[in-house]
């Protein structure tokens, strides 16, 4: 099963610090390197917030989780955050198994994530 | 029937997809198929990376069998003796997940009821056993 990666970044200078990544299909030992390569390109820029929309992701293994963990580490080093929305139940269970990764926020939907990010922005004095 | 695979990630996923088809044909519940597929992916990945050093010239075998109340998955490789099932939790920090076992073992243990390792001659033999809630009268080998 392939992995489809769609990346959307913001257009304003502050929004350019945030990117939404939509993953569809399978994030596994064969497809994880492609995500890793695309994240490396993305994180070479001023990205501080990554939102992973996993509505169409049907499979994830530890290979994919390692790529995500590496991205999370880079974001944390620059005071950023990786967020996850719309996890299918089987994907949520895999995240639960590894007891989640520190520095990662999982939200049930975009509205919950927006409320969290808005609160974060107030704390950090930023507007996106 | 056994599947013989080259030691590459793509071959691991070929086995995973074949297992999914087997599970669908056996009318297994989706969660069971997902768990079996994930366990096979994790084990296959460990073999490719740690037992066979990502050498595409080397091969490993996967066999799947349906018993009335169990699914059995056996993996065989000719790599150095190595039992990754002895790993409990990752010893490395979460962002340094490249050690053998680690998250993969935790994931496998969620979906598989028993994992048995043995060394047979020059081969590592790993047996994964999944108990099924509903028995079948069929015994099917893949």
Describe it.
The complex is a heterodimer of chains A (128) and B (142). Chain A has 128 residues and is an alpha/beta fold. Chain A has one domain (3-124): Transcription Regulator spoIIAA (2-Layer Sandwich), CATH 3.30.750.24. Chain A contains four helices and five strands; from the N terminus they run ββαβαβαβα. Chain A has helices at 32-43, 62-77, 89-97, 110-124, and strands at residues 3-9, 18-27, 49-60, 81-85, 104-107. In chain A, strand 2, helix 1 and strand 3 form a beta-alpha-beta unit. The longest helix of chain A is centred in the middle third of the chain and has 16 residues, at 62-77. Chain A is globular and about 40 Å long. In chain A, 34% of the residues are buried. The model of chain A has no long low-confidence stretch (mean pLDDT 85). Chain B has 142 residues and is an alpha+beta fold. Chain B is globular. Chain B has three helices and six strands, in the order E-H-H-E-E-H-E-E-E. In chain B, strand 2 and strand 3 form a beta hairpin. Helices cover 34% and strands 27% of the residues of chain B. Chain B has a single domain (3-83, 99-141), classed as Heat Shock Protein 90 (2-Layer Sandwich), CATH 3.30.565.10. In chain B, helix 1 runs antiparallel to helix 2 (30-51) and helix 2 runs antiparallel to helix 3.
């Amino acid at each position: 099963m392939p992995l489809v990666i769609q990346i959307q970044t913001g257009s304003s200078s502050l929004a350019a610090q945030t990117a939404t990544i939509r993953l569809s299909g399978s994030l596994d030992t064969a497809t994880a390197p492609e995500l890793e390569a695309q994240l490396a390109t993305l994180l070479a820029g001023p990205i501080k917030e990554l939102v992973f929309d996993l509505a169409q992701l049907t499979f994830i293994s530890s290979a994919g989780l390692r790529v995500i963990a590496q991205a999370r580490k880079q974001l944390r080093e620059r005071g950023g955050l990786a967020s996850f929305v719309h996890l299918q139940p089987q994907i949520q269970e895999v995240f639960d198994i590894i007891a989640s990764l520190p520095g990662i926020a999982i939200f049930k939907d975009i509205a919950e994530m927006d409320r969290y990010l808005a609160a974060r922005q107030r704390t950090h004095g930023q507007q996106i | 029937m056994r599947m013989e695979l080259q030691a590459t990630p793509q071959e691991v996923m070929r086995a995973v997809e074949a297992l999914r088809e087997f599970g669908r044909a056996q009318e297994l519940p989706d969660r069971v198929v997902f768990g079996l597929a994930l366990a096979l992916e994790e084990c296959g990945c460990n073999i490719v990376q740690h037992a066979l050093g990502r050498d595409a010239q080397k091969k490993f075998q996967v066999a799947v069998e349906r018993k009335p109340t169990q699914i059995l998955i056996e993996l065989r490789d000719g790599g150095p003796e190595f039992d990754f099932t002895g790993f409990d939790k990752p010893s490395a920090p979460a962002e340094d997940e490249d050690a053998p076992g680690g998250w993969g073992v935790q994931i496998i243990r969620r979906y598989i009821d028993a994992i048995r390792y043995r060394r047979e001659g020059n081969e590592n033999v790993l047996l994964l056993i999944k108990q099924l809630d509903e028995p079948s009268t069929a015994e099917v080998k893949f």
